[in-house]
Amino acid sequence: MKPMSGTAARGFTLIEVLTALLVLSLLALMSYRGLSAVLDAREHVRAETEKWRRVAAFFVRFERDVELASPRPVRSATSTAPAWRGETVASSDVRLEFSRFASSEGVDTARRIGYRLNDEQEIELWVWPGLDVAPDTVPARYPLLAGVKLFELQYLNSALAWVDAWPLSPADPPIPRAVRLRIVLGSDEEIVRVFALRS
């Protein structure tokens, strides 16, 4: 029998099919890796956005509270606490405690509030029910910002010097001229803000 001449249909060889499959699998692998990188980047951006949103919300809250600081000391049955009390050492006690006027919106009342860094690396807001309260009154505690390694406060005195505690002497005004807040996040970012006060 005579072989068919030039008009016969010719198929792919096994080597051509394997080469095509190899090229397609390499393209699929590169596409998967690219998509995985895009999804990882998107998750990282989402986490960073959420972290900075929480930091910004904390600073807005802190700024609003210190702007409403009141020069009124707190009276109790046995003693009087200064209008603004800032402590120098971290302890289980409040790091910053001050009297605050009611906001102009009328949604709250004048009260005593405090800020401290707890053992879980959260900055807590302490809220007492009013200004003059019984000595055994326990404040309500609200975590405001998590993942904080360091929470430092300094106060600007009348000589325009930063001090670590307030008041240092009975001659100091009820409220410092400004407060400088420094926090270091768990990711080692450091943020320093200065808030002027109405003293």
Q: Which characteristics define this entry?
A:
alpha+beta, Pili subunits, 4-stranded antiparallel β-sheet
Query: What would CATH call the class of the domain at 63-145?
Result: Alpha Beta
- How much strand content do the residues show? 25-35%
In helices, the fraction of residues equals 25-40%
Overall form: elongated
* CATH topology category name of the domain at 63-145: Pili subunits
What does this structure look like?
The protein is an alpha+beta fold and 199 residues long. The chain has a domain at 63-145: Roll (Pili subunits), CATH 3.10.610. It is 27% helix and 29% strand. The protein has a five-stranded antiparallel sheet with strand order 3-4-5-6-7, with helices on one face. A four-stranded antiparallel sheet has the order 9-8-10-11, with helices on one face. It has a two-stranded antiparallel sheet with strand order 1-2. Strand 8 (148-156) and strand 9 form a beta hairpin. The N and C termini lie far apart (113 Å).
Secondary structure layout plus pairing:
Blueprint lengths: L13 H54 L6 E2 L4 E2 L2 E3 L9 E5 L10 E7 L4 E6 L12 E7 L1 E9 L5 E2 L14 E8 L4 E7 L3
Antiparallel strand pairs: 1-2, 3-4, 4-5, 5-6, 6-7, 8-9, 8-10, 10-11
Short account of what is shown:
The chain is of the alpha+beta class. It contains 1 helix and 11 strands; from the N terminus they run αβββββββββββ.
